[in-house]
Amino acid sequence: MSASPKPPPFDPADPLGIDDLLEPEDLAIRDTVRAWTRDRVLPHIAEWYESGELPVVRELARELGALGALGMSLEGYGCAGASAVQYGLACLELEAADSGIRSLVSVQGSLAMYAIHRYGSEEQRREWLPGMAAGELIGCFGLTEPDHGSDPGSMRTYARRDGDDWVLNGRKMWITNGSVAQVAVVWAQTDGGVRGFVVPTGAPGFSAPEIKHKWSLRASVTSELVLDDVRLPADAVLPGVTGLRGPLGCLSHARYGIVWGSMGAARSSFETALAYAGSREQFGRPIGGFQLTQAKLADMAVELHKGILLAHHLGRRMDAGTLRAEQISFGKLNNVREAIEICRTARTILGANGISLEYPVMRHATNLESVLTYEGTVEMHQLVLGKALTGLDAFR
C-alpha cells in the first residue's frame, strides 16, 4: 500500500483550504481586487469615513471599471462576463476594505446595470451599459420609498401616460450613488402594474439631495430621489418585465454579492483581532495566549470560514443556473448576522482600541448594521425561509 500524501501545513488565513476550490483565474481576480483596495482605498478609508464623504467616487468608479468590476458577471456591452464565484470574490475583497465601496459596485452592477441588461431593450443596453461598465457613467436604483421599504408593492411613485410620454412623480429614499449618478433605474406604479424606467438624472424635475448625518456607510454616497413631473419618452420604460418580479429579481442578484461581501468585513475584523492578540501584552504575556481569547478567535474563525464556504456553494449554484432566491436569503441572513457578531467579538479583543478608527473593526461593525437591513431585513429573510420550509405565507 502506498503512503498517504502528507497534508499541507495549517494556514490560519485559510484553515479549511478553501483556496483549493478556486481556479487560477479566480485567484488572479481576487488578488487583483485585493491589491487595488490596498493601494487605493485602505490608505484613505478612515479619513473618508470620519468625514462622511467619498470625495473621489467618480475617480474610483473609473478605476473599478478598468478592473472589470462593474457589471462584472454580465455578458457583452463592455462587461467582463466573469463567473458568479469570481464576482463574489471581488465583493469579499471590496467589503474587506469597506462596505461603502462594495455598495458602490453592487448598486452599479447588480442593480442598475443588471436591470438594464436583464429587462431593457437592445437600444437601452447599447446606450447605457458600455459607459457604466467603464465607470464613465454611474447608475443608481430607485425602489425604496420613505414610507415603503419592506413592502415595495405599496410604493406611491407613479408614472402616467401623457400622449406618447411618461410623466413620473414620487420620492425614493436611501439610494446609494443617487447624487452622483447620471442614470437612475426607477420603479413606479402604472395603470398596468409596476414598471421600471431608465431616467437620465439631468431630466427636468429630477433631483437627488444627499442624505447626511449617517452613522453607518459613511464612505458612501446616499441620497433621496425626487421626481416632480419628470417627463420621459415612451422608450424610457424597461420593456422586459411588468410587476414586482422585476425589481425583486435585481435585489436577488445584489443580495448574492452581500453574502460574499459581509465575509470580507468579517475577515478584516478577524485578522485585526488575531494580529492584535499576538502583540498586545497583559499580565506579562500576549493576550492570544489566554484561553478565553483563543476561544473567541476559534469561534470567529469557524463562523468566518463556514460563511465563505456557504458563499462559495451558492456561487457554484448560481454559475450552474440552479440557485434559488430562498437560498440567497439563507446566505444573506446567516452571513451578515455572523459577520456582525465577529466584528463585535473582535472589538472585545481590542478593548478600548476597538472603537478607534486606527483599526477597522468598529467601522465594519457600524457598516454592517446597514447591510443587515438593506436589500431585505432579517425579518423578511426569516419569513422567506419560513414560507419555503412550511409552505405557509406569514408575510401578512
Automatic annotation (TrEMBL):
Cofactor: FAD
Domain Acyl-CoA oxidase/dehydrogenase middle: 140-230
Gene Ontology molecular function: fatty-acyl-CoA binding; flavin adenine dinucleotide binding; glutaryl-CoA dehydrogenase activity
Keywords for the protein's UniProt record, in alphabetical order: FAD, Flavoprotein, Oxidoreductase, Transit peptide
Biological process according to GO: fatty acid beta-oxidation using acyl-CoA dehydrogenase; fatty-acyl-CoA biosynthetic process
Coiled coil start-end: none
Record domain Acyl-CoA dehydrogenase/oxidase C-terminal: where: 243-389
Keyword Plastid: no
Pfam families in UniProt: Acyl-CoA_dh_1 (PF00441), Acyl-CoA_dh_M (PF02770), Acyl-CoA_dh_N (PF02771)
Domain Acyl-CoA dehydrogenase/oxidase N-terminal: 24-136
The keyword Flavoprotein is assigned to this record: yes
Cited InterPro entries: Acyl-CoA_Oxase/DH_mid-dom, Acyl-CoA_Oxase/DH_mid-dom_sf, AcylCo_DH-like_C, AcylCo_DH/oxidase_C, AcylCoA_DH/ox_N, AcylCoA_DH/ox_N_sf, AcylCoA_DH/oxidase_NM_dom_sf, Glutaryl-CoA_DH_mitochondrial
Domain of life: Bacteria
Gene3D superfamilies assigned to the protein according to its UniProt record, in alphabetical order: Acyl-CoA dehydrogenase/oxidase, N-terminal domain, Butyryl-CoA Dehydrogenase, subunit A, domain 2, Butyryl-CoA Dehydrogenase, subunit A, domain 3
Family label: Belongs to the acyl-CoA dehydrogenase family.
Protein name as catalogued: Acyl-CoA dehydrogenase
Source organism of this protein record: Streptomyces uncialis
Lineage: Bacteria, Bacillati, Actinomycetota, Actinomycetes, Kitasatosporales
